[in-house]
Write a structure and sequence with these properties.
By secondary structure, the chain is of the alpha+beta class. Helix content is 29%, strand content 15%. The two termini are 30 Å apart. The model has no long low-confidence stretch (mean pLDDT 90).
């Protein structure tokens, strides 16, 4: 998916600020968001979770912290799955904005949510590997509207297969409830100057894990 979240290789965001003795959480609510994410994993796979972050409005994404993005994805996916209602969410936010110390209502008996568990389609067997270590490849120059793990800066760039893994869940399908649809996964070695041009440091290389359908054989 092309969006502001795909920041790899972009300039102008300043240096990464390294915080000495950085705590695991900077605020109590961040730990709660982590707990929420762990609890919704039976409804939400990791690829759908990532796609929820990608669908944040660009301005919201850029001004949000790490766990604010997690929370936005949880909210969006839970609404999409019918686990919560958007009006209910807005009403709760409005209440807590006006009354930060408002007491939560009693939890009551846990509802039976088994009927809301997603049904995973059966995936076909993975296709046979097309590449082996040493093969020259080129990353496809594609611009999907859905989730993808093919970074924008690598599209259309030539690389070499460094290592062939095994078949792995294809995130572009899994994020949209289409099943795992496993494909071969490869470690692909790219020369820095192929990716960044002459400004790349001499001898700089980058290894990317890319799925089979992201790649084409490189012409000689």
């Amino acid at each position: 998916m092309n969006g502001v979240h795909d920041l790899g290789g972009m300039h102008g965001f300043g240096k990464i600020e390294r915080e000495e003795h950085e705590p695991v959480f900077h605020a109590e609510w961040e730990g709660r968001v982590l707990g929420m994410q762990q609890n919704v994993r039976r409804f939400l796979n990791i690829d759908a979770f990532r796609h929820g972050i990608e669908r944040m409005p660009p301005a919201d994404y850029l001004r949000s912290s790490y766990y604010e993005r997690w929370l936005a994805s949880i909210e969006r996916n839970m609404i999409d799955l019918g686990l919560i209602d958007s009006d209910e969410m807005e009403a709760r936010v409005a209440l807590l904005r006006e009354q930060p110390d408002a007491v939560l209502p009693p939890a009551g008996d846990a509802p039976d949510l088994s009927q809301l568990l997603p049904v995973t389609p059966v995936s076909p067997p993975p296709p046979a590997p097309r590449f082996v270590a040493g093969d020259a490849v080129v990353a496809k120059n594609v611009h999907p509207v859905g989730h993808t793990r093919l970074p924008r800066y690598a599209r259309g760039k030539r690389g070499v297969i460094h290592r062939a893994y095994s078949a792995q869940t294809f995130p572009d399908a899994n994020a949209h409830g289409l099943g795992e649809q496993p494909q071969m996964l490869y470690s692909v070695r790219f020369d820095g100057r192929e990716l960044w041009g002459e400004q790349a440091e001499p001898g700089q290389v980058l290894y990317l894990d890319l799925w089979d359908s992201y790649l084409d054989p490189a012409s000689s």
